[in-house]
Design brief:
By secondary structure, this protein is mostly helical. It has 2 domains: 248 residues, no CATH class; 149 residues, no CATH class. The protein has 18 helices and 12 strands. Helix 5 packs antiparallel against helix 6. The longest helix has 29 residues. The protein starts with 7 loop residues before the first helix and ends in a 7-residue tail after the last strand.
Length: 447
């Protein structure tokens, strides 16, 4: 039997088909990545799992929406305790720095107040490194802070302790390669050189005062240093700093420049996408599409894998927390962040714990609360996705109770007033340690 070799035309067609298929795959991959980096995708996928929960088709949780009024009332009560006039600030890292009413940011402001541009850049650097260090500290760790000599010490734990520890480390130049002359910066050189011993000392970690995920936090900072060094177009080179993103965003017209009638602006969803694109490579052991690290994105077995990424549920908790925390520094730089309600609530253990502790989310079996779970587990993915939906519903119900509009009380303020504080409050009421109702196996990079 004689085989006829393909003609030149047939070979050309085959090659063209292969190139077309590869190009189509690339387009599919890139569109999936772009979609999963949008806050819309967070709500879309969360709502898919919520619909399954409503049909009793999830393995680990069901929803009891009859508890929604009770939860909203508890959140309103919690908000009123902290903000009697309901004038609530934004939910961001900046609230934690001045816990206990101590004006800890005064030193930074005094040092740089004569140059608002430098102050804005210092605050952007601080916000980014502090948020990356903000995964759950565990119930044992404490940080002892003395604001000034002669003033009483304050012992802090969890998020506030991590915030103040990171602020003090920042003031001392722990993250700066020019600590003696320019302490108020974060740069690539110093982050890559940062040692476990130095980070442990700054956070007062000992065998008797353990911090969950210390090595994971160090690895995150070191990887941040590499990312800064490797993306000179975004982060500059002399030195490479997170806050040099301001120049990149201006150059690329990502920041809409000011006019006579309007200040410069950046859309919140765009800001989140920029945060993810700028820092996505730092997250360890994550799912990737076309070699792009997706970050805080996890599969769920109940979502069909019909197209690229269709089974994935994005949360971007730390990245959204960072986006919220950049609002105030950007304002100092003269840039207003618009459309903040496009961002979602934060899928973390205080908001999620509130929903479980007050019966809005109901575990279907004892293993949910009896065992520890990794962030990748279907238990945690369900819990976090349903929490996203519940936070939107709680926000609506809280505003109804207070007769306030979304403009008066946006989600970013509901979280601050709010659901996060209420989650901590009910946890302390129900458990001596204040731990969440579901135990997480944390490596210091997600929660």
């Amino acid at each position: 039997m004689t085989l006829t070799p393909p003609s030149d035309a047939q070979l050309t067609d085959q090659i063209t088909d292969q190139i077309t298929d590869q190009f189509t795959d690339q387009l599919t991959d890139q569109s999936a990545i772009a979609y999963l980096q949008q806050p819309k995708a967070i709500r879309d996928r969360a709502n898919q799992l919520f619909q399954l929960a409503q049909a009793n088709q999830l393995e680990h949780f069901c929803c009891n929406l009859g508890q929604l009024d009770h939860v909203a009332a508890y959140v309103v009560e919690t908000t009123q305790q902290a903000y009697p006039d309901f004038v609530v600030p934004f939910h961001s890292r900046w609230r934690h720095f001045e816990v206990g009413g101590v004006p800890r940011l005064a030193k930074l402001h005094q040092a740089l107040s004569h140059t608002p541009a430098m102050l804005a850049r210092a605050q952007i650097d601080l916000a980014i490194v502090s948020v990356l260090l903000d995964a759950g500290a565990g119930s044992q760790w404490r940080y002892v802070d003395t604001a000034k000599k002669g003033q009483p010490q304050q012992t802090l734990g969890r998020s506030e302790g991590l915030a103040v520890a990171s602020l003090r480390a920042f003031e001392q130049g722990l993250f700066s390669s020019a600590a003696t002359t320019s302490p108020y910066q974060v740069d690539a050189v110093k982050l890559q050189q940062l040692s476990l011993e130095a980070l442990a000392k700054a956070f007062q970690v000992t065998d008797q005062n353990p911090l969950v995920g210390l090595r994971g936090r160090l690895a995150l900072l070191q990887q941040l240093g590499k990312t800064l060094a490797n993306q000179g177009d975004r982060f500059g080179q002399t030195p490479a700093r997170p806050s040099n993103l301001l120049d990149y965003w201006t150059k690329k017209a990502i920041i809409q420049q000011a006019t006579i009638k309007q200040q410069a602006t950046i859309d919140a969803g765009t800001l989140l996408s920029e945060v993810l694109q700028s820092f996505g490579s730092i997250w360890p052991g994550r799912i990737a599409i076309a070699h792009t690290n997706l970050g805080d994105v996890w599969p769920h077995p109940s979502l069909p894998r019909t197209t690229t990424g269709s089974n994935l549920v994005p949360f971007h908790k730390l990245s959204q927390w960072l986006t919220y925390s950049l609002v105030e520094p950007l304002a100092i730089a003269g840039v207003h962040v618009t459309n903040l309600d496009a961002l979602t609530g934060l899928a973390e253990y205080r908001n999620g714990g509130l929903c479980v502790d007050l019966g809005l989310l109901v575990p279907k079996h004892s293993a949910v609360t009896d065992q520890a779970h990794r962030p990748s587990s279907s238990v945690v993915v369900e819990w976090r996705a349903l929490t996203i939906v519940m936070l939107d519903l709680i926000g609506d119900r809280v505003r109804q109770r207070l007769n306030l509009s979304p403009a008066d009380l946006p989600l970013i303020k509901v979280l601050e007033g709010g659901t996060w504080a209420a989650g901590r409050r009910i946890a302390k009421q129900l458990r001596p340690t204040g731990a969440p109702p579901i135990t997480l196996q944390s490596d210091g990079t997600v929660f």
